[in-house]
Amino acid sequence: MRTVILCGGESSERDVSLASGRSVARALLERGHEVVLVDPAAVEPVLAGPLRPGDPVDHVAVAKEPPSLSEQRQWRQRMHAALTGGRVLDLLRDADIVFLALHGGWGEDGHVQALLEMAGVPFTGAGSAACAAAWHKGRAQAVLGAAGLPVVERALWRPGAGDVPENVQRLVAAGPVVVKPVADGSSVSVHRVDSLPELDRVASEVRSRGIELLVEPFLPGREFTVAVVGDQVLPVIEIELTTPVFDYAAKYQPGAVSEVCPARVPAAFASRLRDLALGAHRALGFAGDSYSRTDFRCDAAGEPMCIEVNALPGLTATSLVPLAAAGAGWTYPDLIQRILDLATR
């Protein structure tokens, strides 16, 4: 198939996405597909291609820190222009399928999916509505809670010049809490906070950017994640942390944490997590042609809570969905081919 891979983009997950795109390209080439690798936010958006089986693809490492967003405005301008006209749009329309290896921002919140839907271009993963539903963590948790899935109490807060809202103060007083952007990925800017002065320091980092924060109780128990590909639920992964939270550096540096698949838990507990992941997948509108990854953290009593659902989880060599696929007996090219097949069946 003639496949265009979209990667890079304009979010804080740009570096992760560039690494995912190249990993996907190698897998598709191994399976005999023709590939064009495109970063719609770049000055020269076509990174490589058309590539054919046997052609090499360079490797890109993910840095310990997310990229600066000082150029985000320019990235977004270039990205919008590339996806709505000119050479890139021609490439997309000529392709048999567009493989979305974008993470975060416009690539995961439904923007890119909506543009492709309007252009009549087929693509992998969930549609714009499901992506938008999952991307805003506060609204997603409200939907999950309404569907009967276990979620924690939470408060939304956009730091400004005024006082900290009473509901946020109450959560901090009962703390500790986790504070993170309500719409971001790869655990960027995730903090454990134990006091109001600590909260103020975290808020000062985002106040000038107008970012909305999600404040929720810190759950001291074990952490798990479960991927769903189509209608198949993959084995449970346990994330064994050496830090209070699973942050960006821990996610993308080999050996930073221990990720165990399948998780060493009783069969009944693993089955429960898998059922919850499939329930979350469906509650947010993910259809049988898409995939997702649901993250869980347990409270002090060992009860799992749904933390978030990822519409376009990472596909780098160290990402969690490929690890879960390996636990199911799939190779990395098997996983990528299955995602492709879901979008073209």
Fold topology:
Layout (H helix, E strand, L loop, with lengths): L1 E5 L7 H17 L3 E5 L7 E6 L20 H13 L1 H9 L2 E4 L4 H4 L2 H9 L8 H8 L1 H10 L8 E3 L8 H8 L3 E5 L9 E3 L2 H11 L6 E5 L5 E7 L2 E2 L3 E4 L7 H5 L5 E3 L6 H17 L7 E8 L5 E7 L9 H8 L4 H13 L1
Parallel strand pairs: 1-2, 1-4
Antiparallel strand pairs: 2-3, 5-8, 6-7, 6-8, 9-10, 9-11, 9-13, 11-12, 13-14
Helix pairs in contact: 1-13, 2-3, 5-6
Give the gist of this structure.
It contains 13 helices and 14 strands.
Give an overview in words:
The mean pLDDT is 91. This protein folds into 3 domains: 122 residues, Rossmann fold (3-Layer(aba) Sandwich), CATH 3.40.50.20; 143 residues, D-amino Acid Aminotransferase, Chain A, domain 1 (2-Layer Sandwich); 63 residues, Dna Ligase, domain 1, CATH 3.30.1490. The protein is an alpha+beta fold. The strands form 3 sheets. Strands 9, 10, 11, 12, 13 and 14 form a 6-stranded antiparallel beta sheet that branches. Strands 3-2-1-4 form a 4-stranded mixed beta sheet, sandwiched between helices. It is built from 13 helices and 14 strands. The chain is globular, with a radius of gyration of 20 Å. The longest helix is centred in the first third of the chain and has 17 residues.
